[in-house]
Write a structure and sequence with these properties.
Chain A has 430 residues and is of the alpha/beta class. Chain A contains eight helices and 22 strands. Chain A is globular. Chain A starts with 7 loop residues before the first helix and ends with a helix. In chain B, strands 6-9-10-3-11-12 form a six-stranded mixed beta sheet, sandwiched between helices. In chain B, strands 2-1-4-5 form a four-stranded antiparallel beta sheet. In chain B, strands 7-8 form a two-stranded antiparallel ribbon.
């Protein structure tokens, strides 16, 4: 009976034992304490199974049954770096910041590697994340090695910042757990365009956690483009705290990975703050994508808008779970949530679970969900005007996504999303 | 010219067209009139190639080209244009983009060069002006939030841009007030040319006051039972379809 299983939760715990002396912050008591507590939580909880309500529709066994190594610290040249989208970009390879690939000069504010600044982050790292409630966040806390650290000072317009996450080609499955901390001080603004990609022939786990703090009147546009390799897994969790008058505008495009979970916990913490969470999931045969949002209206006079669209082809599966919690204090809440799926194949499946919990009495809150196929009348109308069937279908799919994408007001972010959608369709039609 | 011979078709196993013979020579406008359920719309859908309308016999050719074996988009490229009785709304699809995509698809089919956005806009503006339509129409979603009259005018605008050799107008007059009717009729009349023919399908004679047909055919129970000149439409208006039925 001395067989040691190194897959699943045990595998990660085993690696934590082996790595702990080498992980960043090993000489900082508070980091050690965070990691040890998270390890204990992860040891108790393990990977969530479908018996857990929040994971009813997403089976993590493809992840928990696999064995992952830590990402190699010495990298080959096996990374293709795409052209930058703007003037500034932070590049991460296998979860680690790569200064020589990044362009962060003269930003006028602090951007850089979380690992380098760790001694100054006590109280900030972990302020929003809740490892006790989310085992994957515990896993991240236990093993994080690096991440993006951004602080935009009060009143500064931060422009566009690109966050590139790349994965190197590898024979052995690797896992990385970056922790990204974004803070916008009062009245600051930033457009963060995040794009994650990886090779098509490498199995890996990308498990990022974002902690986003928006002070009074700050505006963050956060466009996330997930184009992980088809054998990759991304399990991401975003925590956002939105103070009075601030706006968090999140758009997430899920177009890659074998399995992805996009989980967002946003708290409208101050009066007259706003949260927009929009997204599109474009799924092909064999892919599984799960968007789960938890939105807390914890202050009066706040507005929230959520529009999620899922397009499914082949034997793919999409999940949307959206919970809106309107606290008693959150009078005059204006909340809206819409979730729509377009099934391009009879073998595709979508599960949708909206959930409203309202404890205030003066509230405007609505939600809806639709599932359908392409409309035969619309398709015929386009073809009767000479438009070939493939093109007609792509026009209708783009139109379906339009409502979600047009909500992204930042032009750079919207252009990035539109080109990612077009790229998906080109592959789909091929 | 459009030539239809012995055309039979069914919908969900139910025979609707029971042997249609019809010729519309190039340059002519023919009207097809008939009561509800006579097969008027089925004829237009069969010619345009809609799924679910199964041809069980006969033929239909346009300028010698077999239409029935082609996909809807191929028929459009071959010169067929169906003006829909109920134009379809396409939320999220901009009208300008839609019109340009359609025009370029047809031009490609004809071996002509595609128009860029500026060239298209110039052309579209000219057609809009002729049809007394506002340029706002280009900025909106296709037929989204359009009134009944605007939808029909948008059909005529498409027709004016695509310049088909055969236009099939399926109850284009339904839901139109008299002013809109005149604009639509003017749009069709403006296209009249030696290489253009039209099949105007209507329940009422009213539209034919403005688009004067060369011939009128009466369709009843899936067959053409009577053919005559424009005066036949007036006769039907006065005495109704029952008289034709009795005579047939």
């Amino acid at each position: 009976m001395n067989t040691v299983v190194h897959s699943g939760a045990e595998g990660f715990l085993h690696r934590f034992e082996g790595l702990r002396a080498r992980l960043p912050g090993q000489r900082l008591d508070w980091v050690q304490a965070l990691r040890e507590a998270a390890a204990a939580q992860f040891r108790t909880a393990g990977f969530p199974t479908r018996r857990v309500e929040a994971w009813k529709y997403t089976d993590l066994r493809p992840v928990s049954d696999a064995a992952f190594d830590e990402a190699l610290t010495i990298l080959g040249d096996d990374v293709a770096l795409p052209a930058p989208r703007g003037e500034r970009r932070a590049v991460f390879v296998d979860g680690r910041f790569r200064a020589e690939l990044s362009q962060l000069d003269d930003a006028g504010f602090a951007i850089g590697s979380l690992a380098e600044q760790l001694p100054r982050l006590e109280g900030r790292l972990g302020a929003l994340a809740r490892p006790a409630e989310e085992p994957l966040v515990a896993l991240n806390t236990m093993l994080f090695e690096d991440g993006l650290l951004v602080t935009v000072p009060a009143g500064v317009a931060g422009g566009v910042l690109e966050l590139r996450s790349l994965t190197s080609r590898s024979e052995r499955p690797s896992a990385f757990h970056p922790r990204h901390l974004i803070r916008l001080e009062a009245g600051a603004s930033l457009t963060l365009i995040e794009e994650a990609s990886g090779p098509e022939d490498t199995r890996y786990l990308h498990n990022p956690v974002f902690e986003i703090e928006l002070a009074e009147g700050a505006v963050l546009t956060h466009a996330r483009i997930q184009r992980e390799g088809v054998k990759g897994f991304q399990l991401g969790t975003v925590y956002a705290r939105i103070e009075s008058g601030a706006t968090y505008d999140n758009f997430t495009l899920n177009a890659g990975a074998r399995l992805v979970r996009n989980e967002i916990h946003a708290v409208l913490a101050g009066p007259k703050s706003a949260c927009h969470m929009n997204g599109a999931q474009l799924l092909r045969d064999g892919q599984h994508a799960d968007t789960t949002t938890v939105l807390d209206h914890a202050a009066p006079d706040c507005a929230s808008r959520q529009t999620y669209k899922t397009v499914l082809s082949g034997k793919s599966r999409g999940v949307f779970q959206g919970k809106i919690h309107v606290h008693q204090v959150a009078q005059r809440t204006d909340g809206y949530q819409m979730n729509q799926a377009l099934l391009l194949s009879p073998d595709a499946e979508i599960d949708s679970k909206p959930q409203l919990e309202i404890y205030a009495d003066d509230v405007k809150c609505s939600h809806g969900a639709t599932v359908g196929a392409l409309d035969a009348d619309q398709l015929f109308y386009l073809r009767a005007r000479g438009i070939p069937e493939d093109k007609a279908r792509s026009i209708l799919v783009e139109a379906f996504l339009q409502e979600a994408i047009e909500g992204v007001t930042d032009e750079t972010a919207r252009a990035a999303l539109e080109s990612a959608v077009a790229g998906w369709w080109e592959k789909e039609a091929a | 010219m459009l030539r239809i011979e012995g055309l039979t078709a069914e919908v969900e196993g139910k025979p609707i067209l029971k042997g249609i013979d019809l010729e519309v020579p190039a340059g002519e406008v023919h009207a097809i009139m008939g009561p509800n359920g006579s097969g008027k719309s089925t004829l237009s859908y069969v010619l345009a190639g809609r799924e679910g309308y199964e041809v069980t016999g006969g033929s239909a050719t346009l300028n010698g080209v077999d239409l029935l074996g082609m996909e809807p988009e191929e028929r459009a490229a071959a010169g067929v244009f169906l003006a829909f009785q109920y134009p379809v709304e396409l939320p999220g699809v901009g009208n300008a983009n839609f019109l340009r995509t359609a025009l370029n698809a047809i031009r490609r089919g004809k071996g002509e060069s595609e128009l860029d956005a500026m060239q298209f806009l110039k052309l579209a503006r000219a057609r809009l002006k002729e049809l007394q339509m506002s340029e706002d129409m280009l900025k909106r979603g296709v037929n989204v939030g359009f009134s009944g009259g605007e939808k029909k005018r948008n059909e005529v605008l498409q027709m004016a841009l695509l310049r088909p050799s055969l236009a099939i107008l399926d109850e284009t007059d339904s839901g139109l007030d008299i002013d809109a009717l005149k604009i639509v009729a003017d749009g069709v009349n403006a296209l009249r040319a030696p290489d253009f023919s039209a099949l105007v399908i209507t329940h009422y004679q009213r539209l034919l006051d403005y688009i004067v047909p060369d011939k009128v055919h009466v369709l009843m129970q899936g067959r053409i039972v009577q053919t005559g000149g424009p005066e036949l439409a007036k006769q039907l208006e006065a005495s109704g379809y029952a008289s034709v039925q009795a005579a047939a």
